[in-house]
Design goal:
The complex is a heterodimer of chains A (about 280) and B (about 325). Chain A has about 280 residues and is mostly helical. Chain A has helices spanning about 5-30, 50-55, 65-95, 100-110, 115-130, 135-160, 165-170, 175-205, 210-215, 225-230, 240-270. The two termini of chain A are about 40 Å apart. Chain B has a single domain (about 80-310), classed as MetI-like (MetI-like fold). Chain B is about 70% helix and about 0% strand. Chain B has 13 helices and two strands, in the order αββαααααααααααα. The radius of gyration of chain B is 25 Å and the shape is globular. The chains are: A mainly alpha (about 280), B mainly alpha (about 325).
């Protein structure tokens, strides 16, 4: 192998990885920008460029705008609640010494391994009994339970990285453990909490099976559910362009988050979570 | 584990224990309500069936549940729908075995490439996160579009058009391809993190001993990233065993080639309202997942807790 080829090899590899990751997403973008009449074109650039599909996606009949709002409500509320609970728990698990600590941690990790469907069916039964079907809380509460373990690990990893002398110093200055947490630890942990917030939000935004199961009223469905249920103007017309446009819009907030905070997200994912 | 300095222990203990309990209990309460209660309830439901007949004595429509013993489980493996269940179990298992194997090989390759590239890291890191960030349900729709009869996949492939999204082995492949696209980069990311903590001196020593690149990979790299890889593989396996979004939006429910146990249980519960049989499927899946996790942790020594929270110490 010539030396030139050898030195170019890593770059070819990089190019292959970037193409592998982005090509399908690029295809979604390109397809969403075609006219309905040339949706089956296979050229790499849409010509003529058309926003027809985007107009169609936001057509009142689809309720797509409302579903975006629903997704923001569900993912936002989930993120706030998860952060609240997880910050407390992770602090205790990372920095306090108490009995059963490892057992509690193992228990929390174990819950993330449970298959969602085993939890969903009884919850569905319960929600029918207490009239929670077609409510936001029926989506938020199970979601909190599913994302919480992930957030607890992430934050535990972050809290552990901080130097051990912090609380000591706070105690010498006369802080109680609770004050040390509030006044010393929390401000320093902000980057970790922020990263966990992004990862939690993405996980909650992408949730599908709960939202699909506990809600059947159009005006409460989340964006991924609505997008998967788009129907064409006629029964035999599959609205691919509209679906791709909606898919792009559902994904764009996440892609922006990823571009802005890639370094932090990678650090957060590799330190604490695998999902 | 406890590198946190504990100076005057006696003075700290009383306050600490109570504080820890107060801090951990909200999380435990939530997990108890949303995870522990449903599991117990699912096991109970799996022994019941909803009444749907007419009471022979009163002529009224029956409501509520009745205890049916192990009927739901017996029907699952020997009843009229046993074929569908065993088929879904087969799909779930093959998706997991084949999918995760392909993803791990591709992911490790990606990690090696990224590890040896010195330029373009930011670009690669951003693009590798895109498949991870795309909602799985949307990814299913995207690949459904790619795999349409006159879609781009058939345009690029030679030969007659393949009906990917209908049913059959090609639909199974379509799901594997979509799943690989979405998760292999992520495994790459995790393995890369594992590679980056291997000290350079280890490789220098291996080179001095005359180890070939392949030998360096198999005798140095692989054993050292094994803990990271094992945990990543375990969590990918558990994720794939409960696969739902991709087969549901890419191919659709009710297809022999791609229905997973979760799709089947979802259909029973949400579409037909048969919570009893659906719970039997769900309880079975729960046990299946538990056994796989147990085998991984016990036999292969996947250090889940340590790898997840202790790696950066």
């Amino acid at each position: 192998m010539s030396t030139r080829l050898r030195s170019a090899l890593p770059y070819l590899g990089i190019a292959a990885i970037v193409a592998y990751c982005l090509a399908p997403f690029y295809w979604m973008l390109v397809s969403s920008l075609r006219r309905t009449s040339d949706i089956f074109d296979s050229g790499p650039i849409p010509s003529p460029l058309s926003f027809e599909s985007y107009t169609a996606a936001f057509d009142d009949r689809n309720g797509f705008l409302r579903s975006l709002l629903n997704s923001f409500i569900v993912a936002g509320a989930t993120t706030v609640l998860v952060l609240l609970f997880a910050t407390f728990a992770a602090y205790a698990l990372a920095r306090l010494t108490f009995r059963f600590k490892n057992a509690v941690l193992a228990l929390i990790i174990a819950t993330s391994m449970f298959p969602g469907i085993s939890l969903l069916i009884p919850l569905l039964d319960l929600f029918s009994d207490i009239d929670w079907i077609n409510t936001y809380q029926a989506m938020i509460v199970p979601n909190v339970g599913y994302v919480l373990p992930l957030a607890v690990w992430n934050l535990t990893a972050f809290f552990r990285q901080m130097p051990g002398e912090l609380e000591e110093a706070a105690q010498i200055d006369g802080c109680t453990p609770a004050q040390a947490f509030r006044k010393v630890i929390l401000p320093i942990a902000t980057p970790g909490v922020f990263t966990t917030a992004i990862i939690t939000f993405i996980a909650a935004w992408n949730e599908f099976i709960i939202a699909l199961s506990v809600v059947n009223r159009e005006e409460l469905k989340t964006a991924p559910v609505i997008t998967s249920q788009f129907t064409g103007t006629t029964q035999f017309d599959s609205p691919f362009g509209t679906q791709m446009a909606a898919g792009v819009i559902v994904t764009i907030p996440l892609v922006i988050l990823v571009l802005l905070f890639q370094r932090r997200i990678v650090a957060g994912l590799t330190a604490g979570g695998v999902k | 584990m406890t590198a946190v300095a504990d100076p005057p222990r006696s003075r700290r203990r009383a306050g600490t224990g109570r504080l820890a309990a107060a801090l951990v209990s909200p999380t435990l309460v939530v997990l108890g309500l949303v995870v522990a209660y449903p599991i117990v309830s699912a096991v109970r439901l799996a022994f019941y069936q909803r009444n749907d007949g007419v009471d022979p004595e009163t002529g009224l429509l029956e409501t509520g549940y009745r205890f049916v013993g192990i009927d739901n489980f017996a029907d699952m493996v020997t009843g009229a729908t046993a074929g569908r269940f065993l088929n879904a179990l087969w799909n779930t298992t093959t998706f997991t075995v084949v999918g995760v194997a392909v993803e791990v090989v591709l992911g490790v390759l990606m990690a090696l490439v990224m590890h040896h590239a010195f330029r373009g890291r930011a670009l690669v890191r951003a693009s590798i996160l895109v498949p991870w960030a795309v909602p799985t349900a949307i990814a299913g729709l995207l690949w459904n579009w790619v795999f349409q009869a006159d879609g781009v996949a058939n345009d690029l492939l030679p030969g007659p058009a393949i009906l990917w999204t209908t049913d059959g082995l090609q639909a199974w492949f379509a799901v594997i391809i979509a799943d690989t696209w979405k998760t292999a980069p992520f495994i790459g990311l995790l393995v890369l993190a594992g590679l980056q903590v291997i000290p350079q001196e280890v490789y220098e020593a291996a080179r001095l001993d005359g180890a070939s690149p392949w030998r360096q990979f198999s005798s140095v790299t692989l054993p050292l990233v094994r803990p990271t890889l094992l945990v990543a593989v375990l969590f990918r396996i558990l994720d794939t065993l409960r696969m739902f979004d991709l087969p549901y939006t890419l191919v659709g429910p009710g297809k022999d080639a791609t229905d997973t146990v979760t799709v089947l249980a979802f259909e029973e519960a949400v579409r037909f309202g048969r919570y009893g049989p659906a719970s039997a499927y769900a309880v079975f899946l729960f046990l299946y997942v538990a056994v796989v996790a147990f085998v991984f942790v016990r036999l292969l020594g996947a250090d889940v807790v340590g790898a997840r929270v202790g790696r950066n110490r």
